[in-house]
Amino acid sequence: MKINANFRALKESYLFSTVGAKFTAYQKAHPEKRVIKLSIGDVTRPLAPVVVSAMERAAREMGDAATFRGYGPDATCYAYEPLLEAVRARYARRGIALGSHEIFISDGAKSDLSNLLDLFSAENTVLVPDPVYPVYVDTNIMAGRRILYAAAVRENGFLPLPDAKVHADIVYICSPNNPTGAAYDRAGLQAWVDYAVREDAVILYDAAYEAFIEGGLPHSIFEIEGARECAIEICSFSKTAGFTGIRCGYTVIPDSLKREGVQLCKMFARRQSTKFNGVSYITQMGAAAAFSEEGERQILENIAYYKQNAAKIGAMLDAHGIYYTGGKHSPYIWMQCPKGMTSWEFFDALLERACVVGTPGSGFGKNGEGYFRITAFATKENTAEACRRMGDFLDSL
After folding, report:
1. In a shared domain, residues 300 and 287
2. For the packed helices 380-396 and 293-319, what is the interaxial angle rounded to 10 degrees?
3. pLDDT (tens digit, 9 = 90+) per residue, 160-199?
C-alpha cells in the first residue's frame, strides 16, 4: 500500500492553523490580556433577518410530513429551484444570462476550488498569482501538478497580467484578491481571457468577495467578452451573506466551455452526482432569501458595516504613512510592514506589544514577504480598539 506522496511536499500546517496556534499559545500564557483577532476572514455580523425567517420556514417544512423533503432533485445536482432562480436573477441584473444546468450549488467556494480539479489531468500546468490564497497551491500540490507563479507586486498594483512567454493550462484569478484586496478592471480581465483563449487554458475565477466591489469594476468574469469559452466562476455566500457557519456557495460553468470536445459543465455534473449529495434544503432556502430584493438590501447593510471598518483601518495607516492596498473593494487591507520588518517579525511584535493578531504576508507566498493582511470582519468596537492599539504601536517604532 502506498500513500499519496504529494502530501510530503506540503507545508506541515495550513497558514491559518499556524496563526491560530500562535494566538492560542499567547492567550494561554497571558490570560489577563484581551487579544483582538484581525486575521482569519470570518464574519461577525449576524445573518440577515430575511435569511433567518426563510430558514425557520424551511425547518418547519422539514418537520411536517406533508412538506418534508429528503434528497434534493438529482437533475440539478441536488439544487432547489428557488436558489437556482435567485442566482440566475442576480446574474441577469448584470446582463448575464445563465441556464439552471450551468449553476452548481455547493457547501462553499473552498470546496469547489478543490472539487473542480477532478475535471483536469494532473499533467496540466497551473498558474497562480503570488501572493495567493493557499488553497490554490495546496490542492494542486496534493494532485502533483506543476505550479507556476505570476508575480503580484507593488509595481503592478498586485494585479499581474499575462506573460506571453508562459504557458499554463489552469489559471487562478481572485478578484477582489485575497490577500491583497486588489481588484481587476475590465481591461485586466480581458487580457487574461484573451490569454486563456490563445493558450486553450481554463480560468478558475474566484469571485468570493465580489459583493464588496463598488463603482464600475466588473463583478463577474462573464462580463468580459470571450469568458464563456474559457472560464469557470466560483462564488460564496460566506462573506456576501455571512454564511461562514452555514456553508453555501455556487459555481458557474457555461455550457459553451468545452475542452477536447467535452462540455465541462456535464463533466462536473457527473462528478457531483457521484461524490456529492447536495446542500441542505434549509440552507438553500436561506441562501435564496439572501438574493431576494429585501435580502440584498439587508446583506448590503452588513457589507457596508465591514467596509466602514476597512475605511477606519485605512485611515489609521494613512495617518502613519504606511503603504497598503485593499479596503475599498475588499474586506482585506494589505499593508507594508514598517521599518523593514519581515512578516513574522511584525506579527510577533504586534501580538506582544499591541495584542492584535493579523496574518503574515509571507504565508501567502514569496512576494508576500514584508507585507501583512488585516481583515475588516471584526466588530466596529474591536476594530476601533485595534486601530488605537496599532496606532500607538506604530508611533513607538
Report:
1. no
2. 20
3. 999 999 999 999 999 999 999 999 999 999 999 999 999 9
